[in-house]
Write a structure and sequence with these properties.
heterodimer, A: 111 residues, alpha/beta, Transcription Regulator spoIIAA, five-stranded mixed sheet, 4 helices, globular, B: 141 residues, alpha+beta, Heat Shock Protein 90, five-stranded antiparallel sheet, 3 helices
Chain lengths: 111, 141
Amino acid sequence: MQISTEELADGITKIALDGRLDIAGAAAVDLKMNVVAGSARRLLIDLQKVSFLGSMGLRSIVLPARAVHSRGGKVVLFAPDEMVESVLKTSGIDSLLPIHHDFAAAIAALQ
Amino acid sequence: MSESRLTLRSRLDELALLSPWVESLAAEHAIPASTVFAIELCLEEALSNVVRHGYRGEPDHPISVEFSARPGELAFVIEDQAPPFDPLTGDLNREAPLPASIEEFPLGGRGIRLMRRFAGSLAYEPLPSGNRLTVRFPVWP
């Protein structure tokens, strides 16, 4: 599981995840996710290259999102593939963290 | 009908053995990618429940997963030697309403909702000294 971060315009932080967000993958990225989320106010979590998402992986998204929300910030989930999106929707997390497949729409949702 | 069995010790890091095993079954039985995803999701969830709840985090207890394939269906039978525990009822199965905020979003308890959505069927039965959970997935020719 790889994680990379990038600062975009308008104070938006992008976290890009690459690999399987299974139990091992979640453990590999949790620390950095939470460190980055600790100071982000507008967070875009890029899920394009996430090939698997389990319930521990959901936790790896929820905890950083909570940190951002607690400071009045916003989080969007960007471009999950079909199966990953199905997990997000089944868990109901998409009602709290919007999913966008269009990058411009994702950025707009963070304004 | 072909069979295959995976035996694990009750440690979360042993669950890393699941994916390569499922991938090898997928290659042998031409299981479609979306079904492989569903299988890995359900097995990870079911086995992590056995490790964390059934065996209460104690390592070095056995868990077995037995695969079988027949026309139209794949089945995974998960057996443990933990105290009786039905993952399909009780606290883990509460169909709670969707939370109103991310602060209320539960960190646990989502797994059964996921399993019910991604598996074709789930069936629990107690064993003389353990538990058996059968997870089935439909496949189409």
